[in-house]
């Protein structure tokens, strides 16, 4: 029987990505091989509860959602995550995966929208980026850069150009809360005429750093 270790399953508004603001069920898997300096879900590193695919699906269906996001931690650190993603797609949900991109994404069901981080120097985990994952990205996927400072911004701008990301999929630039001023980042994007989507973490502005939101 396929089981996964789950930190929480909850219903909230999507705070990021191109479905921001839409009611979504979040399935947060336990565990992460990275330790980003700005991480806001350290409580998902350990613990959690083992659940079967049937139990997870039963918990989700109570909310009658349209959108389901699988997140972490790093959800792909659990090998059974790929089976969960496929099961969610088979159940008719619009499924997205929030991933650091530090684990192979070639096994992800093509129906899933991948929202993949490329870790910036300011994250402290830049060396964990698996650039082969860029080749798995479809036009419906998204690459996210969490910007900690101007050096991160310049690095991210260079990565977008060097990897041709803005011609491959949607690109998201997000300020690290408490580190990078949001207005300043917006001004840089406008100044440089970057073809990226500026975003803030909506859920943090609504509820702060609260688990289950």
Automatic annotation (TrEMBL):
Residues that hold [4Fe-4S] cluster according to the record: 32, 36, 39
Residues the entry annotates as binding substrate: 13-15, 28, 71
Cofactor, how bound (note): Binds 1 [4Fe-4S] cluster. The cluster is coordinated with 3 cysteines and an exchangeable S-adenosyl-L-methionine. Binds 1 S-adenosyl-L-methionine per subunit.
Residues that span the membrane, as ranges: none
Function (record text): Catalyzes the complex heterocyclic radical-mediated conversion of 6-carboxy-5,6,7,8-tetrahydropterin (CPH4) to 7-carboxy-7-deazaguanine (CDG), a step common to the biosynthetic pathways of all 7-deazapurine-containing compounds.
NCBIfam families according to UniProt: rSAM_QueE_gams
The protein's name in its UniProt record: 7-carboxy-7-deazaguanine synthase
Gene Ontology molecular-function annotations: 4 iron, 4 sulfur cluster binding; carbon-nitrogen lyase activity; magnesium ion binding; S-adenosyl-L-methionine binding
Lineage of producing organism: Bacteria, Pseudomonadati, Pseudomonadota, Gammaproteobacteria, sulfur-oxidizing symbionts
Gene of this entry: queE
Documented EC number(s): 4.3.99.3
Binding site for S-adenosyl-L-methionine: 38-40, 73
Needed co-factor(s): [4Fe-4S] cluster; Mg(2+); S-adenosyl-L-methionine
Native source species: Solemya velesiana gill symbiont
């Amino acid at each position: 029987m396929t089981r996964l270790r789950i930190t929480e399953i909850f219903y909230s508004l999507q705070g990021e990505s191109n479905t921001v603001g839409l009611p979504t069920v979040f399935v947060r898997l336990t565990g992460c091989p990275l330790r980003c300096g700005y991480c806001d879900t350290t409580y998902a590193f350990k613990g959690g509860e083992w659940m079967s695919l049937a139990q997870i699906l039963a918990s989700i269906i109570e909310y009658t959602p349209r959108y389901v996001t699988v997140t972490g931690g790093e959800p792909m650190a659990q090998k059974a995550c790929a089976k969960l993603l496929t099961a969610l797609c088979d159940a008719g949900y619009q499924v997205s995966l929030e991933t650091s991109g530090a684990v192979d994404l070639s096994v992800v069901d093509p129906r899933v929208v991948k929202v993949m981080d490329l870790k910036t120097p300011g994250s402290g985990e830049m060396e964990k980026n698996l650039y082969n994952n860029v080749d798995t990205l479809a036009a419906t996927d998204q690459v996210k850069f969490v910007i900690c400072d101007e050096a991160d911004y310049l690095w991210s701008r260079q990565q977008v150009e060097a990897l041709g990301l803005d011609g491959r999929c949607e690109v998201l630039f997000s300020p690290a809360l408490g580190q990078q001023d949001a207005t300043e980042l917006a001004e840089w994007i406008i100044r440089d005429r970057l073809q990226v989507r500026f975003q803030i973490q909506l859920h943090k502005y609504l509820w702060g750093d609260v688990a289950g939101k």
